[in-house]
Design brief:
The protein has about 500 residues and is an alpha+beta fold. It contains 20 helices and six strands. The strands form two sheets. It has a four-stranded mixed β-sheet with strand order 4-3-5-6. A two-stranded antiparallel ribbon has the order 1-2. Monomer.
Length: about 500
């Protein structure tokens, strides 16, 4: 990897195109380097993971709404169109709308992969737009793998270097460029075309973090889908020879100068050198539980404490529960956010998903976590849960913050230390650095776990024969023909989609 210095340039200063970050990203995307077997296997795992969480959300309102919009945009000219999760394989829609609908389905339950560094991200959000274009234009499985490897690589590299959230910019600002780059790789586009697509994709996907603050709305699931849709449209526009704002990162009125660290900012962005394999996907990790990633290890710790200290599950026995954790966890999903909604039993699922006091309380009391039951209004409103929930707070701990930002995989941690003080004076202390499913955790996810997650979430939604068809196909990914790529979707059982009527809109 090579570190690239990125700073703001005044208009009168010379910044050659070859020295711009967007161009350097485009050069990485257009480099025809081979994909390693290890990366290919992980790409397969993440396509399975995306399908898992998508089928589990097919009848949820935001997903139904997005799918209804996509169904109003049949296959466009220039290709065969792309599939929609849940619908029959022969039903195709325009690729940007497939990216939209499938992106919402993947993101809705907050249940797929993650990468956390200077910024937050869900790199699996790259897959819906890249796959939609693959199905539309018809590419081989090997080219799809190359595109997804690039999408992950660029997003991971940007997330390692450039913090968005401290300036209240939503993390999907890194997704538009990474998805555009991935599509460019897959289609073997020239560096110039990819460069222009990256510029527009970034320009149109910078938005505030209000989508993840306070009373969190259904836009949380739509935001990355919008970025993916914009990436598809940006590539289309660039292929037609149109240009985009430049220099998009370094310009005097660009993203860094006015949305990020300002005119004096400087970043060191790592990118693979020419001929260097793209391995960013191997730095990422998926979720065993449907919740914000910083909650994963704390759910596992709560399950452990449930078994070892059942007395701590009763609020009548507990004086306080304090979770000592990282800056990010405390201020984003902890009490440091100062969001009263994080303690509101009538809050939306999206809000509860971003409340570690709620999540830890329920996991502690139940000794388990479920993607539906743990968020049910009746579960959130239970009197003993509300009582214990209101005794649970977070505190930033410098050591956990240091470990959160460490670049050493053996040190990097996303958990915390929990101190439960009982009314009789007993103090229960325990900690967990990484989730059980993390590569360094107690039960790391491998192919078997990804497949099992898919089978569990597909139960009752997808016919057994369809489950087996999809799993057999996706595990042959590098060998697939353009025609077979259209099978990388899943069709719901009869009556499943009909149980959630499509809403009406403009289209």
């Amino acid at each position: 990897m090579k570190l690239h210095n990125v700073r703001v340039y005044k208009s009168e200063e010379t910044l050659e195109r070859k020295d711009q970050l967007a161009w350097k990203i485009a050069e990485v995307a257009s480099d025809p380097v081979a994909v390693s077997a290890e990366v290919t296997e992980m790409v397969i795992n993440r396509i399975i993971d995306n399908a898992s969480v998508a089928v589990a959300s097919l009848t949820r309102k935001p997903v139904v709404s997005a799918r209804s919009q996509a169904l109003s945009h049949p296959s466009s000219t220039g290709g065969n169109g792309a599939n929609l999760f849940g619908e029959p394989q022969d039903l195709r829609v325009s690729p940007e709308w497939a990216a939209w609908a499938n992106g919402v389905a993947v993101r809705e339950l907050d249940y797929h992969d993650t990468f956390l560094a200077a910024e937050y991200s869900h790199p699996g959000d790259n897959i819906p737009p890249i796959l939609a274009v693959a199905q539309h234009v018809g590419v081989s499985g090997a080219d799809l793998v190359r595109g997804i490897a690039t999408g992950y690589e660029i997003q991971v590299d940007l997330v390692k270097a450039i913090c968005l959230h401290k300036h209240k910019i939503d993390h999907v600002a890194h997704l538009g460029p990474s998805a555009a780059a991935g599509i460019g790789t897959m289609l073997k586009l020239p560096t110039e075309t990819i460069y222009q697509a990256i510029g527009q994709a970034l320009h149109t996907t910078t938005a505030t973090r209000q989508s993840r603050k306070g009373e969190i709305s259904s836009w949380k699931a739509h935001a990355p889908a919008f970025a993916g849709k914009m990436a598809v449209e940006a590539v289309d526009r660039a292929m037609r020879g149109e240009t985009s704002p430049t220099p998009i990162y370094e310009g005097e009125d660009g993203v860094i100068a006015w949305m990020l660290d300002g005119p004096t900012a400087a970043y060191e962005v790592p990118l693979p050198e020419k001929g260097e394999a793209k391995r960013g996907i191997l730095d990422t990790y998926t979720k065993e539980h449907s919740a914000e990633y910083q909650a994963q290890a704390l759910i596992d710790l709560a399950r452990k404490l449930h078994n070892e200290h059942p007395e701590a599950t009763n609020p009548e026995n507990v004086k306080s529960v304090v979770i000592h954790t990282s800056h990010h966890t405390h201020y984003v999903i902890g009490s440091g956010a100062n969001d009263p909604q994080k303690y509101d039993p009538t809050a939306s699922r999206e809000t509860l998903d971003h409340s570690i006091p709620y999540i830890f309380t329920v996991a502690l009391q139940d000794g388990a976590w479920h993607h539906v039951d743990s968020y049910a209004p009746a579960r959130a409103g239970r009197a003993d849960t509300v009582a214990l929930w209101n005794k649970t707070t977070t505190l930033e701990d410098a050591e956990w913050t240091r470990r959160y930002h460490s670049e050493d995989p053996a040190v990097k941690a996303f958990g915390g230390r929990v101190e439960i003080t009982l009314n009789d004076g007993t103090v229960i202390v325990d900690e967990l650095a990484v989730a059980d499913a993390h590569p360094l955790g107690a039960r790391p996810f491998a192919r078997e776990q990804y497949i099992n997650k898919f089978r569990i979430l597909a139960d009752g939604v997808i016919e057994d024969a369809e489950v087996e068809r999809f799993l057999a196909l996706v595990q042959r990914l590098p060998e697939l023909t353009a025609e077979e790529i259209g099978g990388l979707t899943v069709t719901a059982k009869a009556g499943v989609l009909a149980s959630a009527p499509l809403p009406k809109g403009l289209f």
